[in-house]
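note to self — DONT lose this again. spent like an hour looking for the file last time. sequence + predicted structure for the chain T wanted, 204 res
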Amino acid sequence: MKTTTALLQEPARHQGRYQISSAGDSEIHMPNCAPPVHFNENITTIPSTNNVAVNRRPNVPATNKNTYKKPPVYDGTPSWQDYLVQFKQLGKRNQWTQEDKAMELAVSLRGAAVSILSDLGLPDRENYNCLVSALAARFEPTNQSEIFRSKVKSRVREKGETLPELAQDVKRLVRFAYPTAGVELRDQLALDCFIDSLGDAEMQ
């Protein structure tokens, strides 16, 4: 059997020669020759292009599975904009590509939201921006601002509802009712609507 001989780097008391088969299928130690202290048997042996066996460490996965965070499901019930903000934060943490984001978003859809996939062609279904636009048009169309304005004007505190819960819902309604308004204007509108929702009896 044709072999290639390589001189091992080892302490002087263990100096010797070590044979590696040219086919890369076996390793033979010469008599009275111990492998060096730093020898690693877990190193993968693969043949090189010149038919000489080469030791190479296995590839280390680039993604750390311990840091991966799975996105929550979306069924069309919660606010789409709120969900999208959370989804984008997860995408940044998980270092998703545009293709990854399209896949993760698609498999996170449930209920009424998953029907969006059937309405889209295959290219748009795998395109993150197209998928986001389709979901926004379905669950938060721009023509709903008038509906939310009507809701926020008629909003009153329900029985057993706490003030923080009422304030949070009023802010949500105002955000949808006035989507183009600045933050300061929306906060002022939300405060006015919150006061109106309490009623005269509760204000006294």
